[in-house]
Amino acid sequence: MADSFSLRNVLENFKSCLSDNKEVYIKYYISGWRELVSFMNSLGSVFSFISKDAVSKIQILENFLMGENGTHYLTVQSMVKYELDNELVDLTKRGSHPESGCRTLLRLHRALRWLQLFLESLRTSTEDSKTSVMCSEAYNASLAQHHPWIIRKAAGVAFCALPGRDAFFEVMNAGSHQEVVTLLGEALPLISEVYQITEDLYAKNKLLDLP
Ligand SMILES: CCCCCCCCCCCCC/C=C/[C@@H](O)[C@H](COP(=O)(O)O)NC(=O)CCCCCCCCCCCCCCC
């Protein structure tokens, strides 16, 4: 539910993501994204084209996880191995597997980089920092490179509708400004670790440019 969002829940999910041997559980990865999407929805309908796309990607992964081959989708590592071994991924151009788990997760993975940059700049921001500026800088340094002009344009319009820094800290629902900053300091290393493990795995398997 939109009004039950708390930054703490996001943190909990990303914490639960990592197994003892540093594999990434898809279940918690997508729960983390669901939390973030519910947060974004509470910010207003200008963001709905973004949340629709995120939800559809979360749903694709959830369907794999719940489906008959679900055991192969327990972790990002097992998914990559299973889909590659069974030639279930379109590697160079879109073909018979336009919605593979690998390419779908890659889209969220790139968005996780945006999140990491955005949260880091929120954490270190000062009273006169603007959320819209922090958000678009994080976007330009990450996701934007993968988006066509029209999406970049629409994203830019949406960013202008972001609440100011004070209100933003408020809706994160994690206590005082100082408490939010502390929590961000705890959350970021976890998010970064999940990001880096996925990035290395995708790089090793040459999956970073999946169509
Ligand atoms: C709170 C501010 C929200 C700003 C969100 C920044 C991300 C902007 C992304 C714009 C994406 C526009 C939608 C369309 C995307 C697709 O074209 C594109 C490519 O997909 P395709 O290869 O299947 O065609 N899709 C993507 O790149 C995946 C985008 C997933 C975006 C997820 C964003 C969730 C944001 C959650 C915000 C939470 C704020 C956190 C503060 C505590």
Q: Could you explain how this protein is built, in words?
A:
The chain is mostly helical and 211 residues long. The protein has a single domain, classed as Orthogonal Bundle (Glycolipid transfer protein, GLTP). 64% of the residues lie in helices and 0% in strands. It is built from nine helices and no strands. The longest helix is centred in the last third of the chain and has 28 residues. The chain is globular, with a radius of gyration of 17 Å. The site of ligand 1PX has 22 residues, from helix 2, helix 3, helix 5, helix 6 and helix 7.
Task: Give short descriptive properties of this protein.
single chain; Glycolipid transfer protein, GLTP; binds the ligand CCCCCCCCCCCCC/C=C/[C@@H](O)[C@H](COP(=O)(O)O)NC(=O)CCCCCCCCCCCCCCC; 9 helices; mainly alpha; 64% helix; 211 residues
List the helices and strands and how they pair.
Layout: H1 7-16, H2 26-41, H3 48-66, H4 76-85, H5 101-123, H6 131-140, H7 149-160, H8 165-171, H9 177-204
CATH classification class: Mainly Alpha
Shape, per Cα inertia axes:
globular
Number of domain units: 1
| Proportion of helical residues | 55-70%
In terms of per-residue confidence, which ranges show pLDDT below 50 for 5 or more consecutive residues?
none
User: Architecture in CATH?
Assistant: Orthogonal Bundle
What hetero molecules are in the model? the ligand CCCCCCCCCCCCC/C=C/[C@@H](O)[C@H](COP(=O)(O)O)NC(=O)CCCCCCCCCCCCCCC
Q: What's the SSE pattern? A: HHHHHHHHH
Report the biggest beta sheet as strand number plus sense, adding barrel if it closes: none
Distance between the termini: 33 Å
Which superfamily, in CATH terms, is the homologous superfamily? Glycolipid transfer protein
Number of discrete helical segments: 9
Q: Nearest-angstrom radius of gyration? A: 17 Å
Strand content: under 5%
Overall mean pLDDT: 95
